[in-house]
């Protein structure tokens, strides 16, 4: 993958698209000259500067994974947040922010990786996993991919239409508060029985990537270990308080 510049240098980035994903979530595609591409699973720092000079910095996972200078982030509004309400409700196409990165080299998937993969996302924790799904499809990879996506309701799902059309990945939906009419699984939290029912083909134990709120990630990771997954093959990315 082509890389230019330095990850610790702030780069001006212009909003080129802003798409509503859910009532509280939005996708922003940023044009950041000199970005130079990123791996699936990496994240970026985003910096906003107010007219009075006040600055705020937040880290956001990247939903895209390619060698270009455009990156996509997806932001869920945090109640009483300082940055996310602006990115979800106020920023417009043509506005500028600053970005730094790409950051992180552990919670990543590369097309040359051949072991089966199990992705588990909670809420907006789908974002870096979406980058992996996209990278897998773009590379024409035959590596077995399975995604478990836990959301409150169908209206809270990021990238729902794209996931429905994705090839090469098997998606299991877990609705925790309200399931669609006629859904075979009642609404409720992701539990051990859900994970035990999964079959990840490929002849070997899968690499597992788990992303979401801290409590979700810790509960899922503990459950995976309890049902026999190798802790060394479980990678986690979390956000928010405990």
From TrEMBL:
- Keyword Protein biosynthesis assigned to the entry: answer is no
- CDD domains listed in its UniProt record: FNR_iron_sulfur_binding_3
Keyword NAD recorded: no
Q: Which UniProt keywords apply?
A: 2Fe-2S, Iron, Iron-sulfur, Metal-binding
Q: What's the cofactor?
A: FAD
Q: Where is the FAD-binding FR-type domain?
A: 8-109
Task: Please identify the protein, giving its name as recorded.
Answer: Ferredoxin-NADP reductase
PROSITE patterns according to UniProt: FAD_FR
Pfam assignment, any one: FAD_binding_6
A molecular function annotated in GO for this UniProt entry is: oxidoreductase activity
């Amino acid at each position: 993958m082509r890389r230019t510049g330095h990850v610790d240098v702030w780069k001006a980035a212009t909003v080129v698209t802003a798409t509503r994903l859910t009532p509280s979530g939005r996708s922003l595609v940023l044009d950041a000259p000199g970005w130079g591409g990123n791996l699936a699973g990496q994240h970026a720092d985003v910096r906003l500067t107010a007219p009075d000079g006040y600055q705020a910095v937040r880290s956001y996972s990247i939903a895209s994974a390619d060698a270009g200078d455009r990156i996509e982030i997806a932001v869920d509004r945090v109640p009483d947040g300082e940055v996310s309400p602006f990115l979800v409700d106020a920023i417009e196409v043509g506005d500028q922010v600053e970005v730094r990165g790409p950051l992180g080299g552990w919670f990543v998937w590369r097309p040359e990786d051949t072991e089966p993969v199990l992705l588990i996302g909670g809420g907006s924790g789908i974002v870096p996993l979406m980058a992996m799904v996209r990278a897998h499809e773009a590379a024409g990879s035959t590596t077995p991919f399975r995604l478990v996506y836990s959301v409150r309701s169908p209206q809270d799902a990021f990238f729902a239409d794209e996931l429905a059309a994705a090839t090469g990945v098997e998606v299991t939906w877990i609705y925790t508060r309200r399931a669609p009419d006629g859904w075979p699984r009642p609404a409720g939290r992701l539990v051990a029985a859900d994970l035990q029912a999964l079959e990840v083909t490929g002849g070997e134990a899968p690499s597992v990537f788990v992303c979401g709120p801290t409590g979700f990630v810790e509960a899922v990771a503990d459950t995976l270990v309890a049902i026999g997954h190798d802790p060394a093959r479980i990678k986690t990315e979390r956000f928010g308080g405990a």
